[in-house]
Amino acid sequence: MIRFDNLSKRYTGGFEALRNVSFEMDSGEMAFLTGHSGAGKSTLLKLLMLIERPTAGNLLINGKNLNRLAKSRIPFYRRQLGVVFQNHQLLFDRSVFENVALPLQVSGYSPGEIGRRVRAALDSVGLLDREKQSPIELSGGEQQRVGIARAVVHKPKILLADEPTGNLDPQLSAEIMALFRRFQDVGVTVLVATHDISLINKMNMRIMRLNQGELELDGVAHDID
Amino acid sequence: MLREPLQTLLTVVVIAIALTLPTALYISVENIRQLSGGVESSAQITVFVKKGARPAAIEKLGEQLGKLSGVTSVSYISAQTALEEFNALSGFGSALQYLDENPLPEAFLVQPLLLNDSAKLVAEIRQITLVDDVQLDMEWLSRLDALLDMGRKLVLALGAALGIGVILVVGNTIRLAIQSRRDEIIIVKLVGGTDAYVRRPFLYTGLLFGFFGAMVAALMLIGLGFWLEPSVNDLASLYQSQFRLSGLGVSGFIALLAIGGGVGLAGAWISVSQHMRDIKPR
Q1: Of the residues B102, B136, B170, which one is the last residue of a structural domain?
Q2: Which of B71, B101, B136 is the last residue of a domain?
Q3: Are residues B33 and B170 in the same domain?
Q4: Chain A residues 141-180 with a CB less than 8 Å from chain B
Q5: Mean pLDDT over each residue of chain A, to the nearest integer
Q6: A44, A134, A126: which is closest to A83 by C-alpha?
Q7: Would you call A78 and B192 a contact, using CB atoms and an 8 Å cutoff?
Q8: Domain limits at B92?
Q9: Chain A closest CA to B256's CA: distance in Å?
């Protein structure tokens, strides 16, 4: 599903954020991306979202090389992704419903279909009764769950999350992680960037650790100590 | 657009004023042209008969004038009629009491078929023995024509300058709108919104600004018309004219809307394509 082939990213200032990173993720696989801040986690996710382009190497999604993707096709590629942002990136001048509906609106779904799908997504994160509220009225954990609902409302094949539990207590973080596992169970490829080691060590899943732009470890949690 | 009501109102009013100025000038030029058109068709050649001509000879002259090529009609004004008219209209009637005899000559009014032929016609009429003098007051007409031509050019220049002004005003307003909705644009792009999808609401906003500006401009012009109408009517009645001020009309209003909308859209388009580039991701 996702294949990094000797990928490097050097920013215009000369800073090398990623160096020869190679890995593969199968469809329906879930993995954690760790490393201290500045190790390249965000850059790696940005390459996947096509916010940044690699300076060397190939990035293949579903066998298609993103380097050869025309600029005009980028929006359609992004519609295959679901992204959960660290600061959830919700619009506070819109209701919870409208926030979650955004990915469907840009893809041109009918209003009836949007209503059905948004409610299904809100139901899956346990916030169905909050659809009319503004995100500002919700707690941090609830806001993050609205962000997750928005990321999965269009049934993406790949779910990316950038520090989704950054500001949450362990209890809430565990709930969010459980949510991601449920999406993995239905066949979504899930990649979560986090530095919350204690949380992921409990989960017994594939971990990729970046250190100064290089992939220094790739394995299942209990193999690593 | 509705998030900043005051800003929106100001923009619409500025656009309206910018559209009103050249349109008002255009309407003025059109009105004067209409007026001059009326004068042109009534451009007549006045033929004064030599003093002391016998009535039979005058009658013969009238027939002769009517037979000339390029003449549509000939009407006779006797010295007596002319005197009465002068008495009634000039306001100097009482001065005539002191004259022993009627100083006015017998005259014919000759209506030429085409204005361009009249110079030739005048030369022809001058040859006739019984004719004392021929008058054709055309010079001021060509002067007016030149003035109108200048007016039309002024409308174009003013329209172009203020059109650019409207583009800049709309462009600036759209720039502010883009900046205030930056977060939204970023998120829409990250969830797969195309450039066209992001652009569309801003283009509609520009179009609406232009439309509303044009509508307010139309209201201003109607108000201006009402304000000017009494004075124009007074002026017209002083000249015994049936002239009435004509406004923009339906087709003019539609043209104004189209121009306003077009200019608003152009401003939005320029602004959007400039400032959207600054927002990452592209």
Answers
A1: B136
A2: B136
A3: yes
A4: 150
A5: 89
A6: A44
A7: yes
A8: 44-136
A9: 34
